[in-house]
Amino acid sequence: MAAIPHHIAIVMDGNGRWATRRFLPRVAGHKKGLDALRVCVRHCGEVGVKVLTVFAFSSENWNRPPEEVSGLMELLAGALSREVPQLHGEGVRIHFIGDRSRLSDKVQAGLAQAEKATAGNTRLVFNICFNYGGRWDVAQAAACLAARGEPITEHSLDRAMALAHVSDPDLLIRTGGEQRISNFLLWQAAYSELYFSDKLWPDFDPAALDAAIADYGRRERRFGRTSEQTTPARQAA
Ligand code: FPP
């Protein structure tokens, strides 16, 4: 059986284009994107992925039209009340990753409540990056160490990062046809396998996720070593 990535990270791109092609407002694309995300979380649990990290709102997304920003905030608030009980029932542990200070008190309380309610779950760790940026994460980790008077090393920075509770992503998927990182997991994706799909995120179904996982299974991960060092059969040959 092909290797299943322990940790998958996803840039869920293409919601806006999905909506625009249907003459719908962009927020309708994000709603469809939430539907696709619900299915994706369930499928990850079914196939044995243990950690899923998604980019739901970047630090730069505040620059979008106000109605789109408020639509995404409403989607988050709605998801907290509607989706969290269901995810809890499915054994999903939720973490919100990002700068919460700019979110409303009500939403901040909802995030904390969702994390607390699901803290004992072990089937799948689900990290939702919201008001997140990879550069923000490196800076906040460094500031945290400086405030504690601790030396800044690779190890100490890694421990102070917002995703310190999970191992680095094995597979990083970006949908929507673009091939860039867009300030997502800059530190943690150092050795992730990258997979780009032309599908728009609302169309990224379980079959598309299976295709990404199968592609990952064919990759040779060397982590800076040579092929001979990482493949026992080649060592023997
Ligand atoms: C990028 O597509 C997508 C986003 C900025 C938002 C992603 C949000 C969801 C999938 C919904 C889940 C939401 C919550 C609250 C958990 P884009 O709008 O940049 O698409 P485009 O490139 O086609 O314009």
Overview of the structural elements:
The chain has helices spanning 15-20, 26-47, 66-82, 84-89, 105-117, 134-147, 154-160, 206-217, 227-230, 232-236; strands at 7-11, 51-58, 92-97, 124-132, 171-174, 193-196. The protein has 237 residues and is an alpha/beta fold. The protein has a single domain (7-216), classed as 3-Layer(aba) Sandwich (Undecaprenyl pyrophosphate synthetase), CATH 3.40.1180.10. It has a 6-stranded parallel beta sheet, with helices on both faces. The protein is globular, with a radius of gyration of 18 Å. It starts with 6 loop residues before the first strand and ends with a helix. The site of farnesyl diphosphate has 18 residues, from α1, α2 and α3.
Strand arrangement across the biggest beta sheet: 3-4-2-1-5-6
| Distance separating the two termini | 24 Å
H/E order of the elements? EHHEHHEHEHHEEHHH
Largest sheet: 6 strands, parallel
Structural class: alpha/beta
CATH class: Alpha Beta
Rg (C-alpha, Å)? 18 Å
Mean pLDDT: 95
What is the CATH superfamily classification?
Decaprenyl diphosphate synthase-like
Shape: globular
Count, helices: 10
> How many individual β-strands?
6
Low-confidence stretches: none
Looking at the overall shape, the CATH architecture is: 3-Layer(aba) Sandwich
Number of domains: 1
Estimated helix fraction: 40-55%
For the structure shown, list the relevant keywords.
237 residues; 10 helices; Undecaprenyl pyrophosphate synthetase; alpha/beta; binds farnesyl diphosphate; 45% helix; globular; six-stranded parallel β-sheet
